[in-house]
């Protein structure tokens, strides 16, 4: 039995990405709507892959593009029976890029799993054809090489004992096998995707609607994923790579992120976390078992003033591989507030102190691990001191404050008639002045007013 690639390739119509948590500088990222839709960009705050995780691309081979080469293993070519699995079609290279192209390197696109290793296994020829026997060899080989995830962007209409036995072998080795549901727009099972232990992937658009070409079926399709993704072709050109062939490595990349967490989850746990509906990286991370997790969350201050007066807002960002349970703000060792959902924001009344106050953010993950970050904020709730030296037709004002003076104002008959950005100023007093007041503002916003008696 031979199998034909289900490849749909479109070079135009690139959609625009929405605002995201992490926005890589890779040229193709603007067209990667799927990364945002599936919250991969938010998951990157906590996990971006690990060198202990290997994603096997069992396909037409993989070209050693700069975005892939540093993490590519040697692999094997079962079509030509050698150790040079170069891509003479392009399909496998694009699949590898979707799953694991490096991110934030100003090159190509941002794959899902930036630090996962890539194992190229060539089982399809230059026309994208290959026999079930060759594919089965590729699956077994990938499992023997310790592949964490085996990505199969290929398939056929017929069931096969060869494929089932190869998948069973990979299962026993601890590999998660992910395969394309096919592009016939049919509910007819597609193999090896329809093998029960394989994670079968369908394709959806940016609105989570099934692409008309994607195969479907609740009884055998386990998860859906973005079916059009920006990817580099072997010549380095970026285009939209569409089909369940594209959705599959996307899921394989998310599986790689999950496999990079602590404690290391089993293939069964990863499969369970991914199964159901459209893939969601954050939801899947939260669904993993976390008993034994020793990795602390990541926490950082957001918008926080360096000087504070009265009530101020302090924001924070926090991330964890299995989810943040809560974030707390402490001021001077005293608990101010707790927030249990992002975006994390706190209201802090800095009054009445004037001092350098340590602000602490404490983030707790679901396993109870805690991370702390500290920042000192100068609180200033004390108005400036003012000395005035009045004369018949003028007044000289001098103001002092630990935070510095922002400005002086002369107020005559209830109206500001003069301003000066400094701490020392001579003001002329109008002849018809009934009341004269000097106001001083410090850089924290405190104000003191002194009536000038003549």
From TrEMBL:
Keywords: Hydrolase, Protease, Serine protease, Signal. Residues 1-19 form the signal peptide. SUPFAM superfamilies: Subtilisin-like. The keyword Repeat does not apply. It comes from Paractinoplanes rhizophilus. Residues 52-274 form the Peptidase S8/S53 domain. PANTHER family: CEREVISIN-RELATED (PTHR43806:SF11), PEPTIDASE S8 (PTHR43806). Pfam families: Big_7 (PF17957), Peptidase_S8 (PF00082). The active site is at 59 (charge relay system), 91 (charge relay system), 245 (charge relay system). The lineage of its organism: Bacteria, Bacillati, Actinomycetota, Actinomycetes, Micromonosporales. Belongs to the peptidase S8 family. InterPro entries: Ig-like_fold, Peptidase_S8/S53_dom, Peptidase_S8/S53_dom_sf, Peptidase_S8_Ser-AS, Peptidase_S8_subtilisin-like, Peptidase_S8_subtilisin-rel. This is S8 family serine peptidase.
């Amino acid at each position: 039995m031979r199998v034909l690639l289900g490849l749909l390739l479109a070079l135009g119509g690139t959609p625009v990405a929405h605002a995201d948590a992490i926005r890589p500088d890779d040229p193709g990222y603007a067209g990667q709507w799927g990364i945002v839709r599936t919250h991969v960009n938010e998951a990157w705050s906590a996990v971006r892959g690990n060198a202990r995780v290997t994603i096997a691309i069992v396909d037409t081979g993989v070209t050693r593009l700069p975005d892939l080469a540093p993490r590519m293993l040697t692999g094997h070519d079962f079509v030509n029976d050698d150790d040079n699995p170069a891509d003479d079609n392009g399909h496998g290279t694009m699949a590898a890029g979707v799953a694991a192209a490096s991110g934030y390197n100003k090159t190509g696109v941002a794959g899902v799993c930036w630090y996962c290793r890539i194992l190229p296994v060539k089982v399809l020829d230059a026309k994208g054809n290959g026999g079930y026997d060759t594919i089965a060899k590729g699956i077994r080989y990938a499992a023997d090489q310790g592949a964490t995830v085996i990505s199969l962007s290929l398939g056929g209409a017929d069931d096969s004992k060869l494929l089932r036995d190869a998948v069973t072998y990979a299962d026993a080795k601890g590999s998660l096998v992910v395969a394309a549901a096919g592009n016939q727009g049919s509910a007819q099972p597609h193999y090896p995707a329809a093998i029960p232990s394989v994670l079968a992937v369908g394709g959806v658009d940016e609105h989570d609607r099934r692409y008309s070409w994607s195969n479907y079926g609740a009884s055998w399709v386990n998860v859906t994923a973005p079916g059009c993704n920006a990817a580099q072709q072997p010549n380095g050109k970026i285009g939209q790579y569409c089909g369940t062939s594209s959705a599959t490595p996307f899921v394989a990349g998310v599986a790689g992120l999950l496999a990079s967490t602590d404690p290391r989850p089993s293939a069964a746990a990863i499969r369970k976390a991914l199964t159901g509906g459209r893939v969601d990286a954050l939801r899947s991370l939260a669904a993993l078992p976390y008993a034994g997790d020793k990795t602390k969350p990541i926490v950082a201050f957001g918008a926080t003033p360096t000087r504070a007066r009265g009530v101020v807002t302090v924001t924070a960002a926090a991330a964890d591989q299995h989810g943040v349970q809560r974030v707390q703000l402490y001021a001077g060792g005293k608990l101010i507030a707790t927030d249990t959902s992002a975006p994390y924001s706190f209201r802090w009344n800095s009054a009445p102190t004037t001092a350098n106050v340590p602000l602490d953010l404490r983030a707790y993950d679901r396993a109870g691990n805690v991370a702390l970050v500290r920042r000192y904020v100068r609180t200033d709730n004390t108005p400036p001191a003012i000395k005035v030296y009045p004369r018949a037709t003028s007044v000289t004002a001098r103001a002092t404050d630990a935070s510095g003076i922002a400005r002086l104002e002369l107020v005559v008959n209830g109206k500001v008639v003069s301003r000066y950005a400094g701490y020392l100023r001579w003001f002329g007093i109008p002849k018809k002045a009934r009341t004269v007041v000097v106001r001083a503002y410090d850089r924290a916003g405190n104000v003191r007013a002194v009536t000038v008696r003549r």
